[in-house]
Amino acid sequence: MLSLYDSVGWEGYTNDVDKLCRGLLNSHLVITARDDSGTLLGLARTISDDEHICYVQDVVVNPRYHRQGIGRALIEDLMPRYSHCRFFLLSTDHESSPEGKRNHAFYRSLGFLSYEEKEMAGFGLPRNRPDLRDMAP
Predict the structure, then answer these.
(1) What pLDDT score does 129 carry?
(2) I need a labelling partner for 18 at 20 to 30 A (CA). Which of 1, 26, 94, 119 fits?
(3) Contact between residue 75 and residue 59 where contact means Cβ atoms under 8 Å apart
(4) CA distance 115 to 136
(5) Per-residue model confidence as pLDDT tens digits over 54-72
(6) What is the rounded CA–CA span in Å between residue 102 and residue 91?
(7) pTM, rounded to two decimals
(8) Measured between alpha carbons, how far is 83 from 66 in angstroms, rounded to an integer?
């Protein structure tokens, strides 16, 4: 698992292995793609209440196996599983980045629309902010 995340350069995940493991354990669903020998080729995981929303947290495929239908198979496996949810969402890099341009084309090929096209907006806090969990109220 660590080598899979490392293969795509996701240092935010690989810098703290315990945190990565906790995140995977706390996911609603984790599915994997493996070759005949059991080697992990790809992984997708969701965060969901299994009623109203499913958020696809990660879709990661080892770059050596890109363009072989692995990412597509992972997403297509998740879509019917959460078809009853009102929202089936994910976030990816901005289209202006090299990864973003490729990712946008990939997700569009699966029928995804941008938030704007769905007449929605997405918001998030800055990535680097203080951890306030241990501070007194």
Answers:
(1) 78
(2) 94
(3) yes
(4) 37
(5) 999 999 999 999 999 999 9
(6) 13
(7) 0.88
(8) 26
